[in-house]
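Re-run with default settings, no changes from the original entry. Doing this only to confirm the output is reproducible before filing.
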Amino acid sequence: MSELPQAGIFALGTASHAYLELDLRDGADARELVTRLADLREPRTTIGGVNLVVGLRPELWRDRVGAPAPAALHGFDAPVVGPDGFAMPATQHDAVLWLAGSAYDVVFDEARDAIAALAPVAQVIMETSSWPYRHDRDLTGFIDGTENPSLARAPDVAVIPPGEPGAGGSVLLLQRWAHDVEAWEALPVPAQETAMGRTKGDSIELKTRPANSHVARTDQDDFGHIFRRNMPYGTVTAHGTMFVGFSADQGALSRMLDSMVGLDGPRDELTFYTTPETGAYYFVPAITALRAFATDDED
């Protein structure tokens, strides 16, 4: 059987999202956690109209459970620190559930059910709710995901190919970035465009792209291609962006972070206006790999 990726990775157009990051309880068995996660989505790819993506800390899935994953894949175990001291924090947890649906009420109900099912072995440490803003813009007002591949090409970028350890799986980088709204909105639009490296209205790359612009510091032609599912989060007074990046290669994601903090050049100008609060890598197993841990229906 071919290794099928989790369908929720590619389920665009959902209006409400919840990200639940969990840790194992003291003394709990990692394999039981994986079984309970697998049972959440077995045998369906969606539940109650909600797409559910399951990810595990790489070391938990590969080393403690013994399931296949890339040998070098690792958690976000240390901050990424730039020469000027700007840091992206490491807040690695054992598992993540990403629920996405047409409305928040169904996401809310399914998230509560999932938390209850996992409660004997794991507890929620971090919870974030998200929603789209003006179709495809983040809360800076710019279009997000301009460089994303088409859905037809996205699996080539996001999914580990057949024959490789963890085939059908994906590497997820999850970060929550809080915006300094007052500082950003105090900038005139041309200054915002210089910091971003694109025009604000139609997301056209600037003819003269500043070396410290966000576009330059995250150029996928330089660092490797990823599939982004970023979403705005928060309230009117405190908000930002959930960075949700999938790749078949962790290196593409880690090189991008190194570039943003300025380890190989100027620091990304956008990081002066938005601050990372969390950072974790998760391995998102193929649905077929996850299904192998599900409870037999006859039990």
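The CA atoms of residues 102 and 111 lie 14 Å apart. The chain has one domain: 7-291.
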